[in-house]
Design goal:
alpha/beta; TIM Barrel; 2 domains; eight-stranded parallel barrel; 19 strands; 24% strand
């Protein structure tokens, strides 16, 4: 019989999970679910009470990529609507014996209550993302005290285990971790992902270098608390050594570090460029295209196989290969391929 692991009281068949910071793999559940068969716990993409518009904005941008041990990738928080998260929960419950946890971010207790009520019969637990909650609260003073009071009330009312995700946006103290245990939080997730906002735009940084640094920082905090802990690693599992500090946590979660299973990236070098300040919109009548003669490797960049024969690519426009209807408009190819551009697709009826 396989060994059972426990996290926040939930029995798991492995110490491996998919984090709520993913913006690509969850979109592949219908077509490539077998790629995630070894995942024992799924933290659904973080949702909030803020409205998510179906505006086809890009969700991911490769800022720099040398290898899976050396990259920096930007993703867009709140890329999923409440309805999408609910459908994911239902799909996972039907297809997998893995545990499913809904992830929320809100600075209002009333909103957390409403979200929990909506997902109560669909998931095994709730995650509260404090990094995004901090941004939504406007970075208020006394955030730790405020959020402890809010969490204490929420935990006391919850029929499901409550897990808290911490990030560099609102770094915790040892005293804060002790309070989390006292109020009944079931587990803590430590994330290396820096999150920031500009106006109504939200951004998340995935970096192998930050992942290594924060693994050391968070491990020291985790060892001072007897609350179960998880770490989100941006380094793929097969590249972690047997004695890597990430393995000192109870379980390890992944997101961009799992993209190697579904895509192959060329080298991308933008270290001198500024970070994103705005996510580009990709109109539903527009599709990406790239110069096939110059960048044949870009066929394998798309995790949705929109440029392959299986994807039945729209066709060639000169030297440019146009994505098929399988294109998800995530923005990945636009950041990885130098020749990538958006082209208008006109149907025969038009």
């Amino acid at each position: 019989m396989a060994k059972a692991y426990y996290f926040a009281g939930l029995p798991l068949r492995a110490r491996r999970g998919l984090s709520s910071d993913d913006v690509v793999l969850y979109k592949l559940l219908e077509s490539n679910a077998e790629k995630l068969d070894d995942i024992a716990i799924f933290f659904l993409p973080t949702v909030s009470d803020i409205r998510v518009e179906e505006d086809w904005r890009a969700r991911i941008w490769v800022h720099q990529f040398n290898s899976w041990n050396d990259y920096m990738i930007m993703t867009r928080p709140f890329s999923f609507s409440l309805e999408e998260a609910e459908r994911l929960a239902q799909t996972l419950k039907l297809r997998s014996d893995a545990k499913v946890v809904a992830s929320f971010a809100s600075s209002r207790l009333s909103s957390l209550r409403a979200l929990a009520e909506r997902f109560a019969d669909k998931v095994d637990g709730f995650e509260i993302d404090l990094g995004l909650t901090y941004l939504l609260s406007g970075g208020r003073r006394g955030f730790e005290s405020y959020v402890i009071d809010m969490l204490e009330e929420f935990v006391s009312e919850s029929a499901r285990p409550v897990i808290v995700k911490l990030s560099p946006a609102a770094p915790p103290t040892q005293e804060f971790l002790r309070h989390l245990k006292t109020i009944g939080v079931g587990a803590v997730i430590f994330s290396p992902h820096v999150v920031y906002s500009l106006g109504n735009e939200f951004f998340r940084v995935h970096s192998t270098y930050l992942s290594k640094v924060y693994a050391l920082i968070w491990a020291k905090l985790a060892t001072t608390s007897d609350v179960p802990s998880a770490y989100i690693s941006d380094i793929p599992e097969h590249l972690l050594g047997d004695f890597a500090v990430e393995r000192s946590f109870d379980i390890i979660l992944y997101d961009t570090a799992l993209l190697h299973r579904v895509a192959s990236f060329p080298q991308v070098k933008r270290l001198g460029d500024e970070f994103l300040v705005r996510w580009s919109s990709i109109h539903e009548r527009m599709r990406p295209a790239f110069n096939l003669r110059e960048e044949q490797q870009c066929v394998d960049v798309c995790p949705f196989r929109a440029f392959t024969r299986e994807g039945e690519a729209t066709g060639i426009m000169g030297d440019f290969l146009v994505a098929s209807e399988k294109c998800d408009r995530c923005g990945l190819c636009l950041s990885c391929c130098k020749s990538a551009r958006l082209v208008a697709v006109i149907t025969p009826e038009e």
